[in-house]
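Z., the sequence and structure:
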Amino acid sequence: MNEPGKFAYIEAKGETPEIPFSRYLPSYPPGTAASWLDRHVSRGSWVLEPIGASPEVILEMAEAGYQVLVSVNNPVTAFELSILSKAPKDSEFQDVLRELSVQKKGKERLGEHLRGLYLTRCSTCGREIAVDCFLWRKGESAPYAKRYRCTACGNVGEHPATYEDIERLQPFKRSDPLHRSRALERLPGGTRAARANVEELIDLYAPRPLYAIFTLINKLEGMDLSPPKRALLDALLLSALDAGHTLWPVDEAERPRALNTPAEYVEWNIWHVLESAAAAWSCRRKSLRLTRWPEIPEPQGICLYQGRMRDLKQQKTDLQPECVLCILPRPNQAFWSLATLWTSWLWGKEITVNFKNVLERQRFDWYWHANALQSALAPAIHMSKKDSPVFCMIPDPSPGFVSSAFEACSTSDLQLAGISLKDEKHPLQTEWAIQTHSREAKKVNLHRIIRESIHNSLNEIGEPVRHLNLYTAANASLAVNEAFPPSIQQLTYETVNEIHGEITKTFNDRKFLRRMEATAQDFDSGTWWLTQPENCQTALADRIETELLNWLQKEIRIKDEMVQQTMNVRFPGLLTPPAELLQYCLRSYADFDPSEGTWTLKKNESAIQREHDMEEIQSLLYKLAARMDFSAEGENPQYWSILSTAYRLFYSSGATMSSILKIPLEEENCETIFLFPGSRSALLRYKLDRDPYLRERTAQRWHFLKFRTLRELAQRSDISRDLWDLLIDSDPISLEDATQLSMFL
């Protein structure tokens, strides 16, 4: 069976900028795309991004010196990319907003009129002020609370909605049918189902924000603006359109992917949103050259094709990108539907011709998503040079998403070259090679491929892992062993179900796998381990600790910024070291200098010093055994025995226990004691907390004894077997820095 390749996980560089609509867009660690490109193609090369779901990725590649051809079918994402590429200043937005605010609405200025929609009275001083937002409960006809900041008396926070607040809603409720009718007229026609979906979509806008939004749109259309000014105002209005719906939960929540109003939601002050939106739209400091296809930016920049990738492929061009790089989006009914709505309202329904079918679809399952991704990837592959490397990132990975991505890539003439996974919070990184020959469909042993891939992964990792790791390993093995059909036409619903069913059956085989500490029935709960672990590698956590210590002892001082990426190189693929584990290891063995950003090996952690400690501990154990009349033999472990009492004592300068656990107990009632430096306490506690199998193996008849505690016991003149038995657990390990208990003072 072929094994999937592996490479070092590429870490983020710098902070993720807050750009408009970021809560809908794929999560992206900055610097990843540029780092990968620098390793595979030369600066100035053409890079093809066939989906364009992340403006951040496209801008980053262009800023790094690559020429980027991007196909974007979502009009809102395309517009955002074009605005951000110009890097407009905050002052430019404020200028056009002032121009908008002085437009007349009846006898008032527009700005004053819209501010008046969100007035309330301060509960402390009674002054009339603007709220930041109102808070609603789903299905109720009035808000239950409001949040504001009174500049007169300093009153800040959340307060109950008043009768006056509720009365202010009545005019909007009376005129609401008219505004809702106009909102519907501006949307593209379609089937009866599409119209019903559109009406539900508009219902996400409550009467007051809907009135404010269409007042703004109507006024904007009556203004004589230059294209650049109109674009800036369109950007601000898009932010208002996003703020106006009911998909804003009162408390922080996951990214909205479905059109479900939360139980409690926020109604934002639309005028405040317009005033504050400029910060997100002006987040960039450097402008980039952006042209519209077929105009080519020179000498570098972004060429934007606004439409579907399969339509771009039909264009006659000699351009052959040297590389394909994309961040694959998850299905997002919320953003796709809202983007269609906003596009029609702002720019006309004709603009949504290639995108309006999302209004007819309410369910986006993973099989549908695999087909959608393939429809963009396959034309991109055929348009690129035959030796082009391909890099696909899968953000917020989940089992269904991973399957869809691997199915889409495998049916797009791609051969998996390597994978790298950190955890569910970071994108799965995959490298692919373009198939140089046509592939025939063949019969494979799904059961064997899936079972062996999971078994090999657990053997290599040496400790229980999350379901996603094993699911990814299985899909990667299916890809490299050509278990997925060669064409999208052959990827039938039945074929996909057969593959997924075989994976499910493997996880349900309790003679093969066991799920540890599950809190729910779904596979994502808890971690997974072999029912009969034999000849496994040393636990990954122990190998990482050992490798990091060897590095510290060799270099003495290492840069903090180098730690994660260097360790990723040494532990590639599915072995990527958890950042938290690295931090516990570093704090255990080294001191951090914040001014230099370096870790320096502690003076008492040198190999010579620890060897001396080990000799001292061995000597103390023999002396203690003699004082308590134990019969002692062996070195490490030492075995103490007297009558029916027996102890097995291991001592180590580290927190690695894998080799110890492989030594079988010779006596059933023997107590095991693990002795270690107190500076390992937090690291050892962390390992036990993260590894349920390690915790299970050490739950009964195991004791953890710090070197310093042993020294204290050795100094006691009253030491006895009863006192020893009482005090060996008196200084427990914890995630906090170990401190000597007062009982030894």
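The mean pLDDT is 93. The two ends are 62 Å apart (CA to CA).

Let me know what you think.
H.
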